[in-house]
Amino acid sequence: MKIEHTEILPIIMPKDDPEWRFALGASPEIRGFIIKMTADSGLVGLGYTSGASHMGSSLGGIRAALEEYTELLTSQDPFDTETLFGIMDDTLSGNNEAKAAIDMSLYDLQAKALDLPLYALLGGKVREEIHVIRLLAIKEPLQMATNALRLVEQGYSYIKIKLEGEPIKDLDRVKEIRRAVGDGIHLTVDANQSYTTKVAINTLKGMYQYGIESAEQPVRADDWQGLAAVTRAVDCLVEAHESAGTVEDIFRLVKDRVIDSINLSIVNLGGLRNAKVAAAICKIGNVSCRVQGIGSRILSAASMHFVASTLNISYACEVGEFSRFLNDPAEGLEVDHGKLKVPSLPGIGVSLRS
After folding, report:
1. Do 82 and 145 share a structural domain?
2. Are residues 171 and 222 in the same domain?
3. 149 contacts 180 by C-beta, under 8 angstroms
4. N or C: which end of the chain has fewer CB within 10 A?
5. 343 DSSP assignment
6. Rounded CA Rg of the chain
7. Is 222 in contact with 245 (CB distance < 8 Å)?
8. Helix, strand, coil % in the chain, rounded to nearest 5
9. Burial class of residue 125 (count of CB atoms within 10 Å of its CB; 0-12, 13-18, 19+)
10. Burial class (CB in 10 A: 0-12, 13-18, 19+), 232
11. pLDDT, average across residues 221-234
12. How many domains does the chain have?
């Protein structure tokens, strides 16, 4: 089997809440690219990626890298993964976001050629489903509490609260949300780098009474010393995301025990092959890990195959945010009572709408 041609399809998905925001910005839509890789057999492999300025990527840069990479794929065997990524690295190094979309499409094509669900190529299925953690955008405390209760009524039991770096108001947000949802709901917080070390420590300690289970990226991504200080000082798990942009970052975070947990992004890491390496590093270093896949159902489905085939995924994952995006070109994946099941069709298990 050979790759016949590869298409780069730009997509724009409006958010159901055009005022959705987090500490580092706001946008009424999410923009990205779908890779549609067609083999001479007629099989099609799908991949997805998007850019995030707070992770150091741009849509223009991703598009340019994709154009460079996809030209190299023509007439290549999609099973020659190591050779293909070696060629891409030699031609244009870095560009993990572009490589992630190609990685997904190659895996999708391989699994379809073998008539197997993707998890079978990634180590087999160790779980059927996982709890989905949903994100709460920054708003006034009572409005966030109302939105949290709405998610609970839809069947979600894990909620991640976005913070903005204002201690008094952030504490009020967590307090009102806990009051609204009750004690049986799992709450985590994500400051997206918006605190200094000392303020992060004091604020998180003030949130203990509301039962938060983890705090994601409380300080700047490059402030590893501050991140380590927060980890040592607070009782809840401290999690890295923006600090964990590469496999090399994850190795250092784990080796130096800077954090307790890592939120792995398949897009930022460059695809499933690198995500498996990152999860293995976490396992060896006894650091928790989970998965973020925010975008099209293509990304969420690929993320679910990773989750299904990785033993040390230890918490609810961000694989259901497609529920708040409109006009997703992909179909075949839906959250059911706060959980997402791994797709069972060949490949990643979703398809483009006709």
Report:
1. no
2. yes
3. yes
4. C
5. P
6. 20
7. no
8. 40, 25, 35
9. middle
10. exposed
11. 97
12. 2
Residues 6+ apart with CB under 8 A from 40: 1, 2, 3, 4
Could you tell me the CATH number of the domain that includes residue 25? 3.30.390.10
- Closest Cα partner for 260 from 227, 220, 225? 227
Q: How many CA atoms lie within 13 A of 194 on its CB side?
A: 20
Same domain, 209 and 247: yes
Mean pLDDT of 259-278: 97
- Decide if 192 contacts 162 (C-beta within 8 A): yes
Same-domain pairing of 149 and 56: no
Q: Containing domain of residue 61, as a range?
A: 3-116
DSSP secondary-structure letter at 127? -
CATH number reported for the structural domain that contains residue 208 in this entry: 3.20.20.120
Last residue of a domain, one of 93, 116, 139: 116
Q: Is-contact 41 21, C-beta < 8 A? A: no
CA-closest candidate to residue 241, choices 197, 181, 294: 294
State how beta strands 44-50 and 29-39 pair: antiparallel
Q: Which two tokens stand for residue 317?
A: 């994952």
pLDDT of amino acid 22: 95
Is residue 256 a contact partner of residue 225, using CB atoms and an 8 Å limit? no
Residues 13, 99: one domain?
yes
Integer Cα distance of 95 and 299 in angstroms: 17
Please state, in angstroms and rounded to a whole number, the distance separating the CA atoms of residues 182 and 160.
15
Which residue is it, tokens 């065997």?
77
d(CA 133, CA 207): 19
Strand partners, 34: 9, 48
**Within this chain, do residues 254 and 313 fall inside the same structural domain, yes or no?**
yes
> 7-66, pLDDT tens digit by residue?
999 999 999 999 999 998 889 999 999 999 999 999 999 999 997 665 556 888 899 999
Shared domain check, 202 and 228: yes
Q: To 5 degrees, how large is the angle CA 75–CA 269–CA 340?
A: 95
Write the DSSP symbol of residue 71: H
DSSP string for residues in 197-233: HHHHHHHHHHHGGGTEEEEE--S-TT-HHHHHHHHHH
Q: Provide the token pair at 24.
A: 């580092």
Final residue before a domain boundary, out of 95, 116, 137: 116
